[in-house]
Amino acid sequence: MSNQLRGIGVAASLAALLGVMSSCGGAGGAPTGADSDPDASVELDSDDIGGVVTSAEGPEAGVWVIAETTDLPTGFIRIVATDDDGRYVLPDLPAATYNVWVRGYGLVDSPRASAAPGEHLDLEGVVAPDAAAAAEVYPAAWWLSMMDLPEGEHSKQALGSQVTGCLNCHQVGNRATRIIPGDILAGSDSHLEAWDRRVAMGPMGPAMAGMYGRLGDQRAMWADWTDRIAAGETPAQIPPRPQGIERNVVVTLWDWGTETDGRTDSAASDVRDATVNANGLVYGVVQPSDILAVLDPVEHRAFNIPIPSSSPEIQGDTPTSPYWGDDPVWARQADPRSVAMDGKGRVWLTGRIRAPDAQPDFCTDEANPYAANYPLRQGSRQVFMYDPDSEAFSEVDTCFSADHNMISEDDDIFYGFNSGIGWIDMEVWDDTADAESSQAWCPGVLDLDGDGAATPGWTEPDETPTTGRDHRIAFNCYSPAVDPTDGSIWCSGNRPTDNQLVRIELGDDSPRSCTAEVYLPPPSITGPPAYGSGGLHFDGEGVAWQDWRGSGHFASFDRNLCASTAPNPSGQACPEGWTFHRMPKPTFDNTPFPINSDESYLTQVDHHDVLGLGHDVPLYGVVNTDSLEVFIPGTEQFVTLRVPYPMGFFSRSSNGRIDDPEAGWKGKGLWSSYSNYAAWHLEGGQGTLQKNVKFQIRPHPLAK
What span, in angstroms and rounded, lies between the C-alpha atoms of 649 and 693? Predict the structure, then answer.
């Protein structure tokens, strides 16, 4: 199916394939499938809760059973799906009393029943009386799909990108955004006036108002959308229930952080070796709260570690919030962003340790070869390292602005910055604790003169490339990735117009030996155009996997297939290296081609088969559908890992961990954080805490 875009008709074949996959048996209970008996009892261990879900329409297949408790040191939730006959098993529950209920598309939430591990509990699903009641539990994307993108100054593609650009921080279409707060609406003459007011409120008010205002008269589409919802209109597109192997997913959530938290990245292990930190603490950086959130998943407890910083405070004065009033809930200094764990279990995070203009002298001093090659005069975010053994933070004052990261096999940690890549040699840092000697950086320079080096005197990005001179390119390196087969560093951008893959070969004599290549997708592919790139990651064979935020594609690029890798300023160098896939999703109505009402975020690869779907299986988070999407390369099928409760799940990053390699599915899992920028937008509203999430896939829905 190379370069074939996946349409709605694929859903049937996907369901069939996943059904075959899920019928495979395994230890711990009867498998689902054609031979299962709806009257058979559900076998339980002393730490399980299980039973059958039925409604007025009979057994309910593919609905979720949710168990939640506040009896443990931190809030705990476990979620499973029912099999073909409505049976379920909630396995391995900690000792506590649980509220247990049913949620599913086509239903309304059932009454909560109290139960303890070891109990058999049959549950009654409640069929939704109407479309409005059923839609209350639809993920945000299905509600957002109701928005009509009008004709006007901006194209519908540009409008779609403006709307989904809001998803960089939070969902749109959830209850918090599709219903205008009563006090705002009461003080407005129309939904349009209410929108003009509400986008200017809260910690991100000025940025939101600016983005919204650039839509001009077309901004009325927001008011039209919420006006129709207030009048009782509901989504015409309906989300599917879990199918096949998706019914084998076990989701576990723990509360952590604070009730005013925003964007959160987490790390449970070293992405290169999933056995690092087995059964250990999970760490998350919480950007607006200046904390390292910590979860102990064995003891079910959570705590917070303040991140020290001498940086000037930011966002101390913000517009009045409808939730927090004039309380500057996001006033902060460290402003931490990405996080990674190294092979020693130490935690590397980006954050502000100083003012942006307080750049060390060596960043521009010609005595430093990297500064002589490409001076950096300002850096907005640097690097912290937290050592769990000493419980101490170290600071690495980087010249480059550090954001998302990737650790190479030889213990360099790479960061992307505007039109370049920077890195810290962790071994040199350990030996010297010296910021200058342990860091390096390179711009992206095309070796057009063919001498194998980035030769000084190159033409700049705003100049026309010249024969016989190298050429520096401008690019966005929001998501850096390391090709494990050759150590090259690749970059993907995240803006609506980004469409590049940039490769930087470090060579043996950096920075002079740092040379770049740039690759763009072919101008014509079947179906919607590819635009608005996103996350990037490599599998073990050197194939790049890239999600496309704007157009909704998931692409692979294999440089080994290129007829030529000679640097080409146009980027049209290897059309044969690209393959595009596109999962059916909710889309805006009345658009020239399908424009998704969601947005992908960052790409990861399950290198260690923690999900049981194969080694080197790529996946990516989706902001507006409460899910991660896993792509199976061998079958070109997608598997959805959805978090149905509390609604609002937004994965910015995930990584696998193996706690016990001998324990099968129970000994491993994929860890992710909630990353919604406003915790008070989650289901439950103000006071709700962000979550840390663990996904596991068992052999069948009744495995114990």
Answer: 9
